[in-house]
Every structure is written in C-alpha cells, then in structure tokens.
Design a protein that fits this description.
The complex is a heterotrimer of chains A (280), B (302) and C (360). Chain A is an all-alpha fold and 280 residues long. Chain A is 74% helix and 0% strand. In chain A, helix 4 runs parallel beside helix 7 and helix 9 (192-221) runs antiparallel to helix 12. Chain A is globular. Chain B is mainly alpha-helical and 302 residues long. Chain B has one domain (40-64, 71-301): MetI-like (MetI-like fold). In chain B, helix 3 packs across helix 9 (208-236) and helix 9 runs antiparallel to helix 12 (267-301). Chain B is globular, with a radius of gyration of 25 Å. The chains are: A mainly alpha (280), B mainly alpha (302), C alpha+beta (360). The interface between A and B is large, with 96 and 96 residues.
Chain lengths: 280, 302, 360
C-alpha cells in the first residue's frame, strides 16, 4: 500500500523516521555523487595547487609561491604561443559564428527544400568525425595541395570545427523565437530587411553571442588538430604546453595550465550566466 | 511561411554557400584527399609519391620480413584490439560511475539541478591536454599518490608504485576525459522521469532493485545508449591519454595514427588506419541511427 | 442610411494548396466571397477548415495557388504584406518582447515614416482608446493576457488600416474577459468604421458579434449570411449542427409543394414547405431548433413521447424527449421549467414556420 508523506509525518513519533522515505530515493547515491564530483575536480584542484609550489620539482611540495607565474610572463615563447592562440580564436570564432548564423537563418526559417538534410548533416559532420581523423586529414590536405599560410592554416581548420559549436545556441534561440513576430513586423509595413534588423536580429543577439563564446572556448582549447596542422611558427598555447610536458614536468607547465583552465572556466561561466538571464 | 516569392532558391543558396564552401572544401575535401593518400606509395622523406599502392592497407596486417617474404604481423591488430578493449572498459566504467550521479542530480530541485549539471559540463569546455596532464602529477613517480604513500610510510623513498605507463593509467585518463559526455545524456533522459511516475511505480514494485530494473533502467536507456556512443567513439580515437599516460610504449589507435605523421613518416599507412577508424565510427553511428529509428517506430505503434 | 455598399474585399475563385504533389493539402477550394466596407465579418468553422488560411492570404503571409483577391477593387495578390493597407491581430498576440507597449503600438507608424509628432499623437490616441496609456512603458511580459490582447489590437489599429484581420484573438482569454472583449470589439468596429474580418471557431462569438458570417468546412464555404439567416435557415446539416442546438429529424414526405407535409419517424405529422426536388415518399431530414418546439403534458395519458432527460440550466431547461425511439431536443423557457419532470408523457406541438427540410 502506498504510504503518503503526510502519513509518515504523523508516524514520526512512533517510528524512527527513515531519511529515504520514498522508494525512489537511494541511500548512498548522494555520497556517490560527492565522490563523483571529487573525481571530476580533484585533479584540476591538484594542478592548480601545485602551480603555487615553490619547489622546482613539480611533484614535491615545499611551500607557497608565485614564482612560476612570474617566470611565465617573462617567457617569450609562452607569450607568443598565447598570442597565437588568441589570434586564432579571435579569427576563427567570429568567422564560424557568422557562417553559423547565416546557416541557421536559412535552415530554420527557410522552409523545406532539397538540400536541407544534407546541410544539416554538414553542420554536424565535424562533431561526428573523430578528432584525430580530422587532424590527419587536414594536415594531408594542406600538405599535398601546398597550402602553407602559417597561422591561417590553423585558423581555417579551427573555423571548420567551431561552426557546429556556434550553431547550437543560435539554432536554439531562433527556434525559441515566435515566427509570428517576423510576420507581425511585415504586416506592420516593414520590408524584409528592416524586419530582420529591428526584430529578428535584436532577439537573436544573445544566441549569437553565446555561439561566439562557445566557439571561442573550443578554439582556445583545441590541441590535436592544431598539433598536426600548425607549422613551425604557428604554435598555440596548448601545443606549446604539450612540448613542455614531453620534455618533462616542470612547474611552469602547471602555472600556464592553471591559467588556461581558469580562463576557459571563466568564459564558460559567463556563457552560462548569459543564458540563464535569457530564459528568465 | 511563404510570402510572395520571397523564399527564392537564390536566397537559400546564398545563405548556405559559406557553409557549403567551408565545410565542403575544408572538411570533406581533406577526408577525400586522405582516402586518396591511403592508396598511394609512401615517400621516405615524408609525404607521398603519386603512385597507386595498396601498401598502406596491407601494412595493417602484413609485413615483409628480412627475406622479402610476406608474413602476418599481429602488432597492429594488437593495438586495435587494445584500443577496443580500453574503449569498451572506459565506457562501462563511465556508465557505472556516472549513472548514480546522473540519477541523484535529476531528483534535485530545479535550481540545484541546473547548478550541478553546469558543474558537470565545465570540464568538457576546458583543455583536454591539461586535464590529462593533471593525472601525471597524481599518478607519476613522486606524484600525489606516491607522496602520500611515502608520507604514510607505505612506500620508501626509492620505491615506486609504477602507476604510470600502464593500461590502467590510460584507462583512468580515458574515463576522466569523457565522463561528462556519459552523464549528460543519461541525465537528460532521467530528468524526463516524473516523480509521479515513480510514485505510481512504487505501487507495483516493492523493492528498490525492482524499481531500477523495471522502471528507471528502461526509461533511461536512450540516454545510456547515447552516452555510451559519445564516450566510446572518442575513446577509440583517443590520442592524449595514451600518449601522456602510456608513454610511447602502450600505443592505441589514435597515437599510432599520429605517430605515422611525426616520427614514422608513413603517411599512407597512417591514412589507411585513419580511414579504418572513420569507417568504424560511421558503422557505429549508422547502427545507432537504425536503433533510434526502430525505437521511434515502436513508440508510435505502441 | 446610405445603402450603397462598397466592396472592401473580394475573394474570387481562391484555391490554396500546401505542399508538393505527393503530399499536398488543399486548404481552400475555390472560395468566393465578398466583404463590404464597414462590416464586422466573421469566418466561422472548426479547426483546420481553412478560415485562418484565408485570413493569411488576405494579409499576404501566404501565396495564393489560384484565384484573385481584391482590396477596394485593387488586386493585391502580387503585393507583399508590408504593401497592403491591412493589419492583423494574431491569436497569441505576437507582441515584440524587446519593445515596450508604446514602441509596439508605434511600430507600424514608424515604418510608414510618419514624423515624430504625428507618431506620438496617434499612438497616444490609440492607447487612450484601449485604456492602456498608463502602462505604455511596460514590456509585454509584464502584462496580463487581456492587456496584451489590447496592445495587439492597438498596434494593428494605430496605422489606420482599411481592413483589420483578427485571428481568434479572444481564444486565450478566460470566459468573463472574453465576453467583455466581445462587446469592446464590436463597439470599436462601430466607432472606427474599419472593416473587421474576424476568425473564430466559437459559434456563440460569431452570432453575437457579426454583421455577416461565412461558415467554412474543409476548405469550402458552406453558407454566407447574417447571423439570423445562418441560424434560422441553414443551408445544410453541417451548418445547422455547427450553430447552436439543433434537431435533425428523419421522416418521409407525405405531400409535396409549399404547403406540404411529412411524417416524422418520431411519429408526428408536420406541415412544412417541401422543396421542389423532393417527391412524395422520399426520405427527408427536417431541421427544427429546440426552442421552437412547444410541449404539453399529455391529456389522454396515452402518448408515445416521454421526457427521457431533464437538465436544469438556471435560465431555462434542456429536455430530451424520446418518441418512437427517436430523440428530440427541446429548450423549455424558464416559466415552464417547474411544470415538467423526467418521465412525464408529452404531446408535441411542432412549429409551422420554423421547420424546414434540409440537405446533407
């Protein structure tokens, strides 16, 4: 017989009240979830802690220090790699966002047409192909065709896989927008351009901004594709970190890694806050 | 919405042209070229001779020995096998770790749910290399684990647990890399389960285990399948975990492929392996789509 | 009174087909219709009958497949919506969420490039008309459903269109509000003199508000007429059934002609005008409104008719009679209510003038 929560309240004094009064609450799952988040975040926590380690041996703790962070900022190689990362992200993300915006407008507001399924497939393609395959294929492509544009090669490769990430929030925003709004604008004497400018665009802007942020983060964090595609002078920060790690763990790596982590986390948090504001 | 002649084909083409150009030329193009390269002859100095050759694929299974005879080479099959085993293990472990957490989160209030899921998502958006690197600090010689053991007197100064460069280390790295991708889809299908549904179910099933088996598991199955694919596919082609945590010694498919383009300079072979991986993934995705279609059809009928 | 009627909208042989050859839907089939200036005209029908499609074709939101539409004698089918002096009130209002009430209402005027002073004057005028002036700086999500509806109305009226199209604007409101708005809309139409084309599936709404009604079913217009015409003389059974309560009684023709008669299966003979194409012995269906039937308690105590259901409505009673296994609906006026109860034996008095033979 099903016992309601009210009945249990009444029986409180007589029976030792079980914390898990409903069958669908499982004891131990709460603890498990705590361990789960621990597993997820402890390594990051360890990394950041060790970046403040004053000892040279990355894995032995000797004391708190900003030493390695200071060293970072005088390391020209790291700074130039960071600069490259920013250049690539600030080039690829806007490009990807623009392409994604146009595509979303056609695919979601453009009715049905023959190439629609194909185009939808194109957008999700970069997500479905394993990264190593994309990386290798792009490398071969540039090499065999003799395309050697330095950082531009990287920018092109990044634009490709940033498109689906920029697309997702834009698609969501456009689908959430009442299509009658644009019709209402047309009904009230707007031509197509001004309806887009005064109604669609302002309402789409948060979505476009979100798409840009996602694309930016994905570009900054990319490693495998950049590793294979980047030539000598086009090292980005993740690739540089990789070469440092290969040479042996040094605390500088911890420091620059921590900075990158925090940077990504900040952007993603901003994105999340922006989207929370929208749904309210 | 089909306002007088406004949805002309021209407008659509114009809007989609950038997409077609960028992904057509720089995604499909490279895949085609890679396919071509896999069928060419390797050039000792890297790159290829534009001559047809099946050597790329042949090398997966066979090798010419010292006497110029062709003999079966199990090395790469072993690597492929290891990749499979590790990918499957990582998927199963992710499911075991992630399932209770996904369930717990889905039973919280809306506000708490959103924050917790956000916390699950954050690692996904950070650099995979860095997150994997953190495990070197934990597992490595004189790393966190060994230092603590040292501190507790369980290990002397010279000894080592030798946690690094093992299959287990790689496995930990793989699970850590893609765990959020398992949790999110499972959570999504669990979230749809109404409390009222569970309430009704408790009238039918008395024990918690029954509840899991008969109600929760079937309802979250789409999420489990989706999550499994999202973990399995990247694990198959993973590069960072085997490279960092396995050293150069324990190769997986991903690092094997990358190797052909760095030190080994065997492009056709690398391309052939990449084509193999791609074919595998396409197969899995098709299979999944087929299951989804069947599932949807059954839902409509039922 | 000026009897000269101006054609505001002429719908000529309009057909609308959605989709391609394999899976096409004929939403409108050869519709013909004329709406006069200064009229409150209603398109009435069940969901999916094509009434909203017709409205959208007039507004310009869809392309016509075949036929023509004229607005004050000018062809408009080649004009985009922004070139038609027609404005729409949407079912779910479609207010611009990022603009406040004033900006929403002023939107059309702004697009027409009126100067700032004129825009302000006219917008305030309309806001005053719908009593929303105090809330003019609020955003749509800060308004109640009824308030949003009024803003949508004001926004469509501000540019002084020649025709106002209303797509089920009251369907999202609760009953009391809906009834109040019906009166407001009717008054508004009278005051502004603008032609209103109103779409609804609610027959009560159509009857109370309209000057004329077009009843639509499956893309075909069934009947066009005043509320009285539609109610008292429906063209076919669909129209009869759709509007108000109805009796459709089967019977057989006894004598032909205008003073003919027929025998109802319910066991009564009734005199009514028999249409020319119906001959003696043909099966007919007779249409009678429940309030037209008078009943008396059976004096002989020997009747084939009795009350099978009695439903008290407060201001009347709804009675179901069973006679010869046929069901007949009767509406009792309030004074007679206490005289009857379930199970009573009844004699029916059928009306002479308000029964008619009806087609399928």
């Amino acid at each position: 017989m099903h016992i309601s929560t009210k009945d249990i309240g009444k029986m409180k004094s007589k029976v030792k009240k079980s914390k898990f009064r409903h069958v669908w609450e499982f004891p131990g799952f709460r603890g498990w979830t705590v361990i789960f988040f621990g597993f997820l975040y402890v390594p990051i926590f360890v990394l950041v802690c060790y970046s403040f380690n004053s000892s040279k041996l990355a894995m032995v703790w000797t004391g708190f220090s900003f030493r390695w962070y200071k060293k970072l900022f005088s390391n020209d190689d790291i700074l130039s790699a960071a600069l490259n990362s920013l250049i690539v992200a600030f080039s690829a993300a806007p490009l990807a966002t623009i392409i994604a915006t146009f595509s979303a407008l056609v695919l979601i507001r453009g009715g049905d047409f023959r190439a629609k399924e194909f185009s939808n497939g194109l957008i999700t393609l970069p997500l479905m192909v394993p990264e190593i395959v994309t990386a290798v294929a792009t490398l071969i492509f540039f090499a065999t065709l003799g395309i050697n544009l330095g950082l531009t090669n990287v920018i092109i490769a990044h634009t490709v896989f940033c498109i689906p990430f920029a697309y997702m929030p834009i698609k969501a925003a456009l689908e959430a927008m009442d299509p009658n709004l644009e019709l209402a604008a047309r009904d009230l004497y707007s031509n197509k351009t001004s309806a887009f400018r005064t109604i669609t665009l302002p309402l789409l802007t948060p979505g476009i901004l979100s798409g840009f942020m996602l694309a930016f983060v994905i570009s900054i964090d990319d490693f495998i594709i950049t590793l294979m595609v980047a030539g000598g002078g086009s090292t980005t920060l993740p690739v540089y970190i990789y070469s440092m790690v290969k040479m042996g763990v040094s605390p500088e790596v911890n420091a620059v890694s921590s900075l990158m982590l925090i940077f990504s986390i900040i952007i993603v948090t901003l994105y999340w806050l922006l989207n929370r504001k929208i749904s309210k | 919405m089909n306002i007088q002649g406004e949805n002309k084909i021209q407008n659509r083409v114009l809007g989609l042209l950038p997409l077609w150009i960028v992904i057509g030329i720089f995604m499909i193009g490279p895949l085609l070229v890679m396919g071509g390269v896999s069928l060419m002859e390797s050039n000792a100095y890297g790159g290829v001779h534009f001559k047809f050759s099946l050597n790329g694929y042949r090398q997966i299974l066979f090798d010419t020995n010292f006497f110029d005879e062709i003999e079966f080479n199990p090395a790469y099959i072993i690597i492929i096998g290891r990749s499979f085993v590790l990918a499957i293990s990582a998927t199963i472990i992710s499911l075991i770790i992630g399932f209770p957490a996904a369930y717990f989160i889905s039973r919280q209030s809306n506000k708490v749910k959103n924050i917790l899921i956000f916390l699950v998502t954050i690692p996904f958006w950070t650099n995979l290399l860095i997150r994997t690197f953190a495990w070197i600090i934990i597992l490595g010689k004189d790393g966190v684990i060994e230092s603590s053991f040292n501190f507790l007197g369980l290990l002397d100064d010279e000894g080592s647990l030798n946690l690094m460069y093992t299959n287990s280390a790689i496995l930990i790295g793989l699970v850590y890399s893609y765990l959020p991708l398992m949790v999110l889809p499972v959570y999504a299908s669990m979230e749809k389960m109404d409390v009222r549904l569970l309430e009704a179910a408790t009238d039918l099933y008395s024990s918690r285990i029954q509840l899991i088996r008969k109600v929760i598991l079937p309802l979250s199955m789409p999420g489990i399948i989706g999550g499994s694919i999202l973990v399995f596919v990247p694990c198959l082609g993973a590069f960072i975990a085997p490279d960092l945590l396995g050293g150069g010694k324990k190769l997986l498919l991903g690092s094997l492929i990358q190797f052909q383009f760095s030190y080994a300079r065997n492009w056709p072979f690398g391309a052939a392996m990449a084509m193999f991986l791609l074919a595998l993934v396409i197969l899995i995705l098709f299979f999944n789509a087929h299951i989804n279609k069947r599932h949807r059809e059954n839902e409509v009928k039922g | 009174m000026n009897d000269k009627k101006v054609n505001a909208i002429e719908i000529k042989n309009v057909t609308k087909i959605y989709g391609t050859d394999i899976s096409s839907v004929k939403a409108l089939k050869n519709a013909n219709l004329t709406i006069y200036d200064n009229e409150f005209f209603t398109l009435l029908g069940p969901s999916g009958c094509g009434k909203t499609t017709l409205l959208r074709l007039i507004a310009g939101f869809e392309d016509i497949t075949e036929g023509n539409i004229k607005l004050f004698s000018e062809e408009i089918i080649s004009l985009p919506p922004n070139k038609r002096p027609v404005n729409t009130v949407f079912q779910h209002y479609a207010l611009f969420p990022h603009l406040n009430v004033f900006e929403n209402v002023a939107f059309g005027l702004k697009r027409l490039n009126k100067d700032k002073a004129e825009i302000e004057k006219r917008t305030n005028e309309v806001l005053e008309l719908i009593q929303m002036k105090d809330l003019s700086s609020r955003k749509p999500n800060q308004l109640s459903g009824g308030q949003q509806q009024r803003v949508a109305l004001a926004r469509a009226l501000a540019p002084q269109p020649k025709v106002l199209l209303l797509d089920e604007p009251l369907s999202a409101l609760d009953l009391k509000l809906r009834q109040a708005m019906r009166v407001e809309l009717k008054t508004l139409q009278r005051e502004t003199g603008i032609t209103f084309v109103f779409v609804t599936h609610d027959q009560e709404e159509a009857l109370t508000m309209s000057d004329r009604i077009a009843v639509i079913r499956d893309g075909e217009i069934q009947q066009i007429g005043s509320p009285e015409e539609i109610y008292e003389s429906p063209n076919n059974q669909f129209v009869a059934n759709f509007i108000g309560e109805v009796n459709l009684l089967s019977g057989v023709c006894l004598t032909e002609g205008e003073s003919g008669s027929c025998k109802l299966d319910a066991g009564y003979e009734i005199s009514l005008s028999i249409p020319q194409n119906v001959k003696k012995g043909d099966a007919v269906t007779v249409f009678i409104r429940p309030e037209r039937i008078k009943i008396n308690k059976s004096s002989s105590g020997n009747s084939q008719t009795s009350i099978s259901e009695f439903t008290y409505l407060g201001n009347a009673a709804h009675i179901q009679l069973i006679s010869n296994k046929q069901l007949i609906n009767v509406t009792l006026p309030v004074d007679d209510v206490k005289n009857f109860k379930k199970g009573d034996l009844i004699e029916i008095e059928f009306p002479k003038d308000n029964a008619q033979v009806i087609n399928k």
